[in-house]
Amino acid sequence: MPAIEAIVIKNLTKKFGDLAAVDHVSFSVKQGEIFGLLGPNGAGKTTLIRLLSTLTRPTEGTATVAGYDISKEDSKVREHIGLVSEKMIMYDRLTAKENLKLFGKLYDIPNDVLEKRIYKLLKLVRMLKWKDAQIGTFSTGMKQRINVARGLLNMPGILFLDEPTLGLDPQSTSEIREFIKRVNIENKTTIILTTHMMIEADMLCDRIGIIDKGKIVALDTSENLKKILAGTDTKSIELEISNLTTNLLSLLRGLDCVKSIIQNNPTHIKIRAIGEEAFDSIIDTVRKNDGKIKSINDLEPTLEDVFLHITGHEVREQVSNRVKGQAPRHGFRTKSRIR
Ligand SMILES: Nc1ncnc2c1ncn2[C@@H]1O[C@H](COP(=O)(O)OP(=O)(O)OP(=O)(O)O)[C@@H](O)[C@H]1O
Ligand SMILES: [Mg+2]
To answer: What are phi and psi of 175, to 5 degrees?
Structure first.
């Protein structure tokens, strides 16, 4: 009988000196699932993917991928997986097709099979038109599509995608998300995807593991994760203030209970806050400063709220604009949570 679990992870740990980049992680991924690893900068997402794809060895713990042990059967594991990561090297002077051919040869795929597969994959990622163009002339989004095609060259049962839409324009982002969904449905590929984008995890993943400081701090479907917030004091409200000023905004930002404010337009703000008194403090501050409130709405919980509730800090979407590799671990910690 085929294994129901595509991946089984037990106590997996990777230390760099004193730092546990992945810290006693245990969970399983089901066959055919799109599993999201959601976490901020430095959370340990890439390290966990590198462990599972046998690019680095664990300090402690074990995992099986496609039924094979990552430490003892690494070459078997590699036969069954594809990896799309941020650090993929491609040859700028070669064409899209030549690049894929070169990487396909590493898998010992017979020439005629490889030709057909490359054609099919280029079609899947809508790059057939550019098959004979040099990679060096491509935009980041086009290169990432080729990267996805490359990850699928060996028709893997399990595909690892490390931040597949990082730094892409909105159109490429939505196209890559669409390919991910399609590969999962059409080829029944199990997909493990890392992201710091709540919306990406929410729209793509069957289940989401929230990772913070090397530990899985919550794991469930997006719907169930949001239920964690029921009856808690983490809330998001939308306020319409007809005479909103920058002074009032900075006073609100200064409140202890306020974790973030997003201004949608000159009069509308979305406030994420924690604490039983949060609502009253916010309204008092607006009124005491002569703010005219036109409407107040409680917002449906988002994964962002869940993340904040569990970890006490936020994963900010603008992380996507960062220069890779330069941000310190936990660099996006905001105010510490009131516990
Ligand atoms: N080879 C290494 N040597 C030393 N420390 C490392 C190494 N690789 C990762 N780290 C550290 O381990 C922690 C986890 O890094 P990792 O790259 O896994 O995080 P991440 O969640 O992928 O972050 P990002 O969002 O920046 O991609 C970080 O503090 C990082 O600096
Ligand atoms: Mg990473």
So the answer is: -65, -45
